[in-house]
Amino acid sequence: MSVQEYLEKHLLSRKIEEAVNAAVRAKAPDPVLFIAGHMRRAAPAVITRVQARQILDGHGAPAVEVELHTNKAVHRASAAGAGAPEGAAADSAGDSGRRKILARSVADAVRVINDKVSEALVGMDPQQQAQIDQAIMDLDKARHKAELGANAMLAVSIAACKAGAAEKEVPLYKHIADLVGKSATTLPVPAITVINGGKHAGNGLPIQEIMILPVGAKNYEEAMQMGSETYHHLKDIILEKYGAESCNIGDHGGFAPNISSISEGLDLVIAAIERAGYNGRIKLAIDVAATDFCFGKKYDLEFKSTKKSGQNFKTADDMIEIYSQLCSEYPLVSIEQPFDKDDWEHSKKLTTLELCQVAGDDLLMSDPERIKRAVNEYTCNALVLKVNQVGTVTEAIEVVKQAKDAHWGVMVSHRSGDTEDSFIADLAVGAAAGQIKAGAPCRGECLTKYNQLLRIEEELGCEGVYAGENWRTASAS
Fold it and tell me: Which of 12, 19, 92, 363 is deepest in the core (most CB within 10 A)?
C-alpha cells in the first residue's frame, strides 16, 4: 500500500484537520505537541507483539515477566509462580532440584508466550479484556492450566489490562471497575503480616501468619501508619523478650521469634498494639495453613519440632475448640485455612459457629466449582483470591462476583515469593474487595502493593472511601 493509499484509507487528512481545529479551540500553548497527542489518540491501539522473559521473584526463584507491545506503548506485568513444583520427581529432587524443575517450567512458558500467545493476540484491541483472556485460555485446555501455567497466562492478561487502561486514559483500578461493571472507590483494609510461622519461618510456631487489620483507621494512609508503627513496636518487644536473634523475618516479612504457641504470638502482637496506642482500633487475623501440618486426620502442632512432646497432636474437633478459645480471648476476626484443604466437614462446623470470618484458601483454590460448593454447603464465608491460581483477569473478576453474590468477604492476596508487580492493589480497589493481604510493611514485593494503594487513595481524594469497619461487606456502588 502506497503512502497516498494509506492516507486515503484512514482519512488522515480529515483527522489532521480535526486535530488542528481542536488545538485552536483549546488555545494550546504548544500546538505541535497538542496535535501530536491528538493524532496519537485518534489511532486505535492494537497489540503488535507479546514478549516474555524469565525474572526472579521475591524468593529468588524463576518467574514470568511479560511485555505487551501495542502500536502506541509497551506494558509490563509479572506474576508469582504457583509455588514448588509437584510430583514424585519434585518430591525427591531437593531444593536445588525443585528450583531447576521450576526454571524449566518457566522457560517452557516463556517459549509458548513468545510464539503461540503472541501470534494469537496480535491485532487485538487491548480494551477487549474478555476477548483477549478467552484467546489465552483457548491455548491451554489442560486441567488447571497445566500446559501454559496459570501464572504465565496471568502475566499476559495483566499486561493487556494495563494496556487497556492506558488506551482509555484512565487509572488501572478504574479500568478494572469498568470491567466489573460498577464504579468503585473503596480502599481495602490491609491484613498486614507481623509474625510468620509454619513453613514460612524457622521457628516452632505451627501456623503460617499472624496479621493485624487496622479497621479503626480513618483512611488507608492512617491504616498503613498504624500497621507500620505496630510492626516496629513488635520488633522492640521481641528484642527485649527474646534477644536480637529472634528479630529475623520469615517469607512474608513477619518476625519469626522462637515461639511455638499461637497464644504467645498473639500476646506479643497485642502488647505491640497497646504500646503503639491503637488498642481497640486494630483487629487480629491468622492464616493457619493447616494443610501443611495435617497428617491423616490429625493436626501436629509440633510438626517442626525435633523434640515432640506427643501432647500436641490434635483432632479437627480439638482444633475447633482451640479456635473458639482464641476468638473468645483475643480480637480475632479472621481465620484463614483452619483445616486441611479437603476437610469440608470441619470447615463448615467452624463457619456455622459464626465466631469470625472463615477464609478458604487451599479449600477453594480460587476455583469457581469449589467456591460454588462452599457457598451451597456454607463451608466458609470468605474467599482468599490468589489471581495466579485463576489464570486471567476476567476469571478473577468472575470469582469475586461469585463470592460477593454469596455475601462473602473477599481478601485479595499476594503469593509467597511474589514479584514487584502491584496489580493486586488496583484489583482490590477496582473490585471493591474490602481486604488485601500483601505481607509485612517490609520487603519490596510487599511494599509495592501497599504503596500503590497510598497513591490510589491520594488520586481519589475525597471520593475515596476506606473500608474500615465494613471490611467484610465492602461493595462497589
Answer: 363
**CB-based contacts of 320, cutoff 8 Å, min separation 6:** 346, 349, 350, 353
The model's pLDDT over 251-272, given as tens digits with 9 standing for 90+, comes to 999 999 999 999 999 999 999 9
Known binding residues: 200, 209, 287, 336, 361, 413-416, 437
Burial class (CB in 10 A: 0-12, 13-18, 19+), 405: exposed
Q: Tell whether the torsion through CA atoms of 315, 267, 330 and 439 is positive or negative.
A: negative
The full DSSP string for 133-158 is HHHHHHT--SGGGTTT-HHHHHHHHH
Those residues whose C-beta lies under 8 Å from the C-beta of residue 412, and which sit 6 or more positions away, are: 188, 385, 387, 424, 427, 428, 431, 433, 435, 436, 437
Cell numbers placing 375: 457457598
Contact 179, 129 (CB under 8 A): yes
Taking the whole predicted model, whether its pTM rises above 0.85 is answered as yes
Residues 6+ apart with CB under 8 A from 91: none
Mean pLDDT of 167-176: 96
Please report the pLDDT score of residue 87 as a whole number. Answer: 41
Residue 232, CB half-sphere, CA atoms under 13 Å: how many? 9
Please give the Cα distance from 330 to 212 (Å, whole number).
Answer: 12
**Cα 201 to Cα 205, 292, 381, 420, 436, distances in angstroms:** 8, 13, 28, 21, 22
Binding residues for substrate: 200, 209, 336, 361, 413-416, 437
Give the span between the Cα atoms of 314 and 317, in whole angstroms.
8
